[in-house]
Amino acid sequence: xxxxxxxxxxxxxxREARLEPAPEIDWxxxxxxxxxxxxxxxxxxxxxxxxxxxxxxxxxxxVALFVGLPRDPAASGSLGGATAxxxxxxxxxxxxxxxxxxxxxTRITAGDMAQSVVHRGHATWTLAPRSTGVLVAQGDVLVIRxxxxxxxxxxxxxxxxxxxxxxxxxxxxxxxGTEFVVTLAPDGVSVKVTEGSVLVGPRDQPGVGQLLxxxxxxxxxxxxxxxxxxxxxxxxxxxxxxxxxxxAPIPESPSDKAGAGAPTPGTTPGSGSIASVGGPKAKAGAxxxxxxxxxxxxxxxxxxxxxxxxxxxxxxxxxVVKLAATCFKQRTATSDGVRVMAQTTITFRTxxxxxxxxxxxxxxxxxxxxxxxxxxxxxxxxESTRYGFQVSRTVNVxx
Length: 399
Description:
The protein is of the alpha+beta class. It has ten helices and 17 strands. The model is unreliable at 74-94, 230-286 and 288-298 (pLDDT under 50).
């Protein structure tokens, strides 16, 4: 069959198909032959309340049994006493007071437990059991007065010279960024510094007194005068160059022992005469050497004041903080105007001659910044002290 005939046949079949009507489809018959076309709806089950009724009946029986039993009056009284004692027990356990809600002049007394007063972001002071303190002033400088007992203070580090002070009798103990304990006794006031530094002096002369650097413990009179005899011997042993109390004597060398027992040419054994060693010149030389020995020993002892002044500490701290800020700006890379800020605690130690021995950062800054600070600390010089001193300060630096 030629292609032309095939084409004509296809056209004829198409024309006849168009003339025929469309057949009707029995959709219901088709659905019956399909699986799961009809789903039987299950009727809901009725909820049973029998378990709930049984539980309610048991509860009613237990209540009726408890009410019908005879009661012991003594037991009932003890139960009521215990119930009444619950608020008192809760009050005894509540040992922390919000200091921001206290007005100046508020008196705080600790019972059998220590009592803490918290000033958020500023300081926390804790009264020992059976101690009494009074809040004297709020604000930038927080002042409390210890009337009885002992108080432990924990002060948040700050760049201000003074943010917290404790008054006991006529003694004023001022601090910033430190932890210390003040104890009031009938014969004086004792101060123990475990971290940082405090300035102890007369109450009516703020900024004047003796500086105590941690670790330190010292006794003061009720008027604020230090009692030198009560200085801790254990703290002396921590200071370099200070002879230890009760140190063992240095043994003599064998040559010294031999020289002491052997006769010297030109001397008479057993005579004990200094002149027989070498005549009057030798005697004069021996006397001069004996006189020079105390001078030599005294020259080995470090000179200068034992503690720096408050102005010296602040001046040295300002120089170190300025150096750290400058190095942070110079050695910190930024782009597209992004500000970089960091908070760190700087701890620096000085030498006896006033130079800076070391500067540490916690948390540490970048190695480039710390190398810059190490190079520049040679240009910082403060007042000379007998043993040097150490200061810690929390600062914010930015680029």
